[in-house]
Amino acid sequence: MPCPEVAALFEREANTFATIVLFQDDGFARMAMDSEFSIKVPMRTAKKFGASVYAGIREYVRRSDKACAAIILNPCTFRPDIGYVAPVRRTEFSPLFKAQFGDLKLPLELTSVDEMMRFVPLGGRRMARPDTCALTDLNGSIQEFVGEGFATPYNIFVLIHARATLRRRIVIGS
Fold it and tell me: Across residues 90-115, what is the average pLDDT?
């Protein structure tokens, strides 16, 4: 029986290979990046590649050239003392997000007092309307983010992206 470190390495390598094959190397990213940035893009594109929404959103964020993050939550429950509660399952960050903001510090579960909860669809809804929030970057500057959410029976997905990285710059040479 292999040691746990070797088994974990094999598991990571198998997952990497499966991701490359499933998403046709950068085919998914090229197709997704041709659209306006939105949570609906990886949802639609994942279907075309035979992938789950979960895998599609993670790949979308990992391959994005925008400052964005995905927060994956377990389904909400309601507690009379604090209202809706959604346990944080995992987070995924784009390279630019990590470079500008580091890791997003979240509690183990979001509650109605947490700013990110505004992006969680509640009351049986599947989609949450886009809304804004502010995050402080590693330089201490406040950046405006747009967030939106989508719920399945198994997970809630929140996608946030910096408004500043959505603007395209056009450089005209002399």
Answer: 92
